[in-house]
Automatic annotation (TrEMBL):
Domain EamA: 10-143, 159-266
SUPFAM superfamilies in alphabetical order: Multidrug resistance efflux transporter EmrE (SSF103481)
Transmembrane segments: 7-24, 44-62, 74-94, 100-121, 128-145, 157-177, 189-210, 222-241
Name of this protein: EamA family transporter
Topology of this chain in the membrane: Multi-pass membrane protein
Annotated Gene Ontology cellular component terms: plasma membrane
Cellular location(s): Cell membrane
């Protein structure tokens, strides 16, 4: 029992650290918005992650190529929602809103997931989930209106917050599709293939908008985004899910606004 308790408490630190990494990334995203375009940092982020993973994962992808081929279409969809639409819009939102607001809106991913699940999975939530979601929704409206709900009706709210809400909405689809498909494919292989698709999806935007060079101002942020929130945090999160379960793990997402506000104030 003592060993189990030790593992349990040790595992609780994993999702907390993952959320801390993601929270810091939100602040980094807001900071770097003045030095690099959304398309550029999004592309560089996944390029760094892809290059880091390639020596370790590419041989496994080749060995399991038949399995990967069967799920190729689903992995392409997951990449579009989770790595391109969500992350690209988040980088765009950073030009117009604060890191604190981005962190708060990110914490609404579970709420958006409930509503998306109703339509895609036909998963009807219980009354407590509905009540909690409604309270969260009005809380989100309060944040977007900057404390004055009447302003939201008159001006439509904060432009950056609105973009971030759309981004979170897309990420909810990512989570629901993951649950619906339950892909029987190793997690790192799945992550690697999705990153590969993300790079391909970025190419038309790069041709259209161009690519900013990496320099001393944006370079550290690019490499942080490519390694910590793209690779290390997801791995910590996946281990936490295995150790303490998805429900307990998801609770730690509520720490994101707290961590983001603290980091942004430093």
């Amino acid at each position: 029992m003592k060993d189990a308790a030790k593992v349990h408490w040790w595992a609780l630190l994993l999702p907390m650290l993952a959320v801390l990494i993601w929270s810091l990334n939100i602040t980094v995203t807001r900071y770097v918005a003045d030095y690099i375009s959304p398309v550029s940092i999004s592309f560089y982020r996944w390029l760094v992650a892809f290059l880091v993973l390639t020596p370790f994962i590419l041989p496994q992808v080749w060995k399991q190529r038949m399995l990967v081929r069967r799920h190729l279409g689903q992995l392409a969809v997951l990449s579009a929602f989770g790595m391109v639409l969500y992350q690209g819009l988040a980088y765009s939102a950073a030009h117009y809103t604060t890191a604190t607001n981005m962190g708060i809106i990110n914490a609404f991913i579970p709420v958006f997931t409930i509503f998306v699940s109703m339509f895609i999975l036909k998963d009807i939530p219980n009354k407590f989930a509905v009540i909690g979601s409604l309270i969260s929704f009005f809380g989100l409206m309060y944040v977007m209106s900057q404390g004055h709900l009447a302003n939201l009706l008159q001006s439509g709210g904060h432009w950056g917050d609105a973009i971030m809400v759309v981004a979170v909405f897309f990420y909810a689809f990512y989570g629901v599709f993951l649950k619906k498909w339950q892909l029987q494919i190793p997690l790192l292989i799945s992550l690697y293939v999705q990153i590969g698709f993300a790079l391909i999806y970025h190419l038309p935007f790069i041709v259209w908008l161009g690519l900013d060079p990496i320099n001393l101002q944006n370079g550290p942020s690019v490499f942080y985004a490519g390694i910590f929130p793209s690779l290390i945090a997801p791995l910590l999160w996946m281990v936490a899910v295995q150790q303490i379960g998805p429900n307990r793990t998801s609770i730690f997402m509520n720490l994101m606004p707290v961590f983001t506000a603290i980091i942004a104030s430093l």
